[in-house]
Amino acid sequence: MLAALLFAGSAWAGEVVVYSARNEQLIKPLFDAYTQETGVRVRFITDKEGPLLARLKAEGRNTPADVLLTVDAGNLWQAANEKLLQPVDSATLKANIPAHLRDPGNQWFGLSVRARTLVYNTARVKPEALSTYEDLADPKWKGRLCLRSAKKVYNQSLVAMMIHEHGEAKTERIVRGWVANLATAPLPDDTKAMEAVAAGQCDVTLVNTYYFGRLLQAKPGLPLAVFWPNQDAQDRHGGAHVNISGAGLTRHAKRPRAAVRLLEWLSSDKAQQFYADVNLEYPANPAVQPHAAVAAWGEFRQNLINVSEAGRLQARAVMLMDRAGYK
Amino acid sequence: MTARSWPAWAAALPIAAVTAVPVAVVAASLLAPDAEIWSHLWQHVLPELLVNTFWLVLGVGVGVTLLGVSLAWLTAACEYPGRRFFAWALLLPLALPAYITAFVWLGLFDFTGTVPTWLRETWGVAWHPPIRSRGGVILVMTLALYPYVFLTASAAFRGQGGRMLEAAQTLGLSRVAAFFRVALPIARPGIMAGLLLALMETLADFGTVAVFNYDTFTTAIYKTWFSLFSLQAASQLASILVLFVFVAVLLESQLRARTSFAASPRGEVAMGRIRLTGWRAGLAAGWSALVFAVAFVLPVWQIGVWAADVFARDFDSRYLVFVSRTLLLAALGTALVVAAALLLAYAQRLRPTLAMRAVARLATLGYALPGAVLAVGIFIPVAWLDNRLVEWLAVLGRDGGQVLGGTLLVMLLAYCARFLAVGYGPVDAGLARVSRALDEVAQSLGAVAGRRLLRVHLPLLRAGLLTAAALVFVDIMKELPITLMTRPFGWDTLAVRVFEMTSEGEWQRAALPAAAIVLAGLLPVMLLIRSREHAHA
């Protein structure tokens, strides 16, 4: 038995192999449904984004992976940049996924939308006082702002998109303003940041909405609410910052057609509903309605700049945050 | 290499290669520095991180030595109420992944934590301990890592026997002076072995410091890789870290080589324990209980509460599979690592030259690298070899995918590269306490090297080997980056479950697999203690 374990065979007919940085509990139910519907088995391995990309690169043409599935546009951009993906020409994917949520070169496609928004303490802040991400740098928020660590990619891609919009000099001033307004050192995750707001350690923070949904499901009574920033219709660049989870076809996929069929299925109405709902995210496919709990936070205008910009400018954003002292 | 030295080298070199190849892959990055990233790091990142890292290493070093040595001396050489319990219970924090403990501490003592919230809401006291601080990180890491020193120092104190201490006292030293001038110096190799492990783990840690947002050198490595997208520059930083550790450990082992402390051949005779009475016994029991409560009971209580909350939702029959795989991997990995460590330590005993010491130290560097960097360093040569194999086999008419990739063989070799230091330290320290006079006697009686190892040294090394095995076993159970990167498809372990939950911030749900790791980790610790008690009964 040990010998069989030590040298496990690999070839299976009717299967697709996925490398995923999206967690097992979020993807396995979907893959099981796909197998039930099509008879195609989905084998997958989960890891962090960086190691998965290094792994794909090292394996080169002999990689078993057909699909790379990850969270965050920056990682998908980097995968394309390192030539680990290949373009997919699929009318279905183009129809289902809006242009700003997929790679201009069709190497990857967003599958869910993760909006980064403001969450404030309803007892201490009137929503009229809130307006934009940039406004949080205003001295009126001194000692009232909580932020998650700058090491999380969500904040990096937000700053990257601000660089796209305002240029580096202005963005650095804004980030310095945020840092000057902090009530406490940056917190390790979005949930801790919201708990600090709820407890009155600070008044407002920046979070991804699904963390808000999850926290309110666990503790319904907290004095917290969502505020959608940058919604001014006059603002050409406006809209709340969105990032994606998404997937692409690996450059050396052994089963490219089966892999594209899986991608297309994931962008379909039925899969999209589950894909987004299981983590309280927004479906990437605009024809699909978000979960009722998610819809309750209200409609909002997304920033329509292509999310690949977040990847292209990520390294610049990180260096800028280092300079500004945002840890 | 003389004719007589070849068996030692033949044993040492292949073992060293398992670690040296990945380290060399990482170090190869030094050939192509990235000027832009480096100038940014020098200017804005590294100065502060080096200071942070310095204080962290210093603080944890002092902390684990104080806790580890004091508790080891009490439980190994003294007798007081509860000693038998604390002798094994004080090892248990080892089974807790440190980043989970860190999160528990934040959840209890930060502004929004249970205790300050209670103080505010019940008493109107607006105070919270500054847990997200340098002191907080040092405290939590000390509590997580002191068992390394505790375990290796216990083995060292036990191995001494009571005679030396008695001799010192008959020569007029007070009991306290005898401890500092006799017992402590003799135990130094053991203490250093544990301290080295704790410090290497501190340097390579990413998860725990991330919870506190305390930036260290390793933070910079991951940031450069994951955020600046430069695995190249990240590997360069990692190479510098490894070089630093290499020089430090080589210096330490050179220093140690000059001073040789070996117990008398009959030293393993059980020593008479110092019986503590009155307030001394109370103090000893109180100190042991305090450390046990803070380092283990507190985090485990919180993990237990969380695990109970999610039990109904998350627990299913798959947990049997996770547990059995975790135990299987840990058992196979431990056997391999301890065997390799024994051969390596023994090769160094046969050929105690600087070259051999350097090879032995090189072989144990895998522990000082941040886990994910080492995982890539392992993966790249394996994938390269695999790709060549696929090509050759294709010539022979085999058509198919990877041969090595995704096999347990690669996984176990990777564990070896990672954890050889953990196995080597206790074994080497144990061997150092066996007098060389014994080797000479055995040799003069005609026993060849292999036979000397089996008949003379192994029985005396028992405590060192058990210590090594327990440490490696628990470490493999908790290991994450290598397990993630090299596991076969579908081979999820308990640590992988912890990862799946924490990577999306679901700390409460991570408590269930974490609790399972603690429960499974009890097993090797119990076995270790039982057989140790037997050895000294």
What does this structure look like?
The complex is a heterodimer of chains A (327) and B (537). Chain A is 40% helix and 17% strand. Chain A contains 14 helices and ten strands. In chain A, β1, α2 (24-38) and β2 (41-46) form a beta-alpha-beta unit. The longest helix of chain A is centred in the N-terminal third of the chain and has 15 residues, at 24-38. In chain B, 78% of the residues lie in helices and 1% in strands. Chain B contains 21 helices and two strands. Chain B has a two-stranded parallel sheet with strand order 1-2. The two termini of chain B are 44 Å apart. Chains A and B meet through α2, β2, α3, α4 and α8 of A and α2, α9, α10, α15 and α19 of B.
Sum this structure up briefly.
With 327 residues, chain A is of the alpha/beta class. Chain A has 14 helices and 10 strands. In chain A, strands 1, 2, 3, 4, 5, 6, 7, 8, 9 and 10 form a 10-stranded mixed sheet that branches.
The total of beta strands of chain A comes to 10
Gyration radius of chain B, in Å: 24 Å
Q: What is the SS-derived class of chain A?
A: alpha/beta
* Relative helix content of chain A: 40-55%
How many β-strand runs of chain B?
Answer: 2
Strand content of chain B: under 5%
Q: Strands of the biggest beta sheet of chain B: in what spatial order?
A: 1-2
Identify the most extensive interface between protein chains: A-B, 60 and 61 residues
Helix count from the secondary structure assignment of chain B: 21
Overall residue-averaged pLDDT value of chain A: 93
Radius of gyration of chain A: 21 Å
In percent terms, what proportion of residues of chain A is strand?
15-25%
Shape verdict of chain B: globular
What's the tally of helices of chain A? 14
SSE order of chain A, as H and E? HEHEHEHEHEEHHHEHEEHHEHHH
State the shape of chain A. globular
Low-confidence sequence ranges of chain A: 1-12
| Ends apart, CA distance between termini of chain B | 44 Å
